[in-house]
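ENCODED BACKBONE
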Amino acid sequence: MPVTVTRRPVLAIVYGDGSASAMSLSESAASLCDIVWVIDSGVMSNRSMIRLLRKLGKVVDIADLSEADAAAAVRSMQPDGIVAYADAQIATASVLGESLGLDYHDRTVAEWLLDKVAQRRALDAGGLPVPRCVVVPPHPLPEEVDTLARGIDFPVVLKPRNGAASRDTHLAEDVAELRELIASLPPSDAASGMVVEEYMAGAPLPPSSYFGDYVSVESIVAGGQISHLAVTGRLPAAKPFRETGLIIPSDFEPSLIDAIADVATKAIVALGIRTGCLHTEIKVTDKGLRVIEVNGRIGGFVAPVLALACPGVDFFAISQRLALGHHIAYEQLLPTELVGYVTVGQPPIGARRVLNVVGLDKVAEYPGVTSVSMDRKQGDEVDWRKGSHEYVFTVLGTAPGHNEVRAMREFVDEEVTVTYE
């Protein structure tokens, strides 16, 4: 009697700089599918990563290939689904998914997810209130800056039209400061596109006594059905807008959490998202709840923090199952056993290089800490303008409650000393 061999599903992961850990993605897929890593070696900064990917699965390098040839190369691997884990790879995954007939964000949705101006317009059309957002022309003259600022209420935020992690994001209190900031932009930013957006001021009564006044809603969509897994709080930010850590669950009041989840649902519907994982940032402002942005992938650090708060939940595995066509839905937020957290050390404005780090050994012994890592070694350059991803160290762990997370962060501030050039 012939033996029937069941073919394992194949998942194409469009991978590159900024993506989630390749090891973590491979571990999540181990019992589910085989991985084909789709890369563009011409834009990958870490060349050794390519060697690692070849050990974790098959690799398709689409560097210098036309759209049709890239699709043909990936098609030869017979993928059953496609997914990306960083903004920089979403557009490529969208194009490939369309060419291969795989369920992913289509080109219109991808544009709305990646272009801040297009997303604001789509949210506005969907009935959500949005701040005024205008495009900065390339290399504008001072008088052009004055013109674009007319009708905008200051303070304003200057940021890349396409970007993530608060890279090159600045607050301007008046037109003079805005002119100065635009004039100081690197040539690449000045030419590639910046936007000026009205700053969303926080509510007079903050929703948390210690944590940030904005959260992210971690969601999945399967066949148009939206489920929210968690509402993630923020540790106090480093200026101007750099993140210093996450907590799951948020410490906001339950009624506010429900209202935030409702806004996230409306934003996802407004963008026409039919499948995948979403990370929707929402702020409690003086004018009510406002969407900061909707991201078409799992948020940074969210998967490991969610796993700490909800043991047994693997967000990467959920995302892979979704990409392969599994229908997954949840009726309510996932129940949490503890408060999961991550906190990172951001370099101060003006720091150029890490000279020394001391005290992390004491942090590793703190109750509830599960891992401590050095992300910048002695002599490494740092640049606060590159945003939240320039952190020097990372601490992951759990705590019985939110007060204990605050105590942990205060301990880190007291015990860890980073010296900079």
Q: What stands out?
A: Residues 201-337 form a domain with the D-amino Acid Aminotransferase; Chain A, domain 1 fold (CATH 3.30.470.20). The chain has a mean pLDDT of 94. The first strand starts at residue 10 and ends at 14.
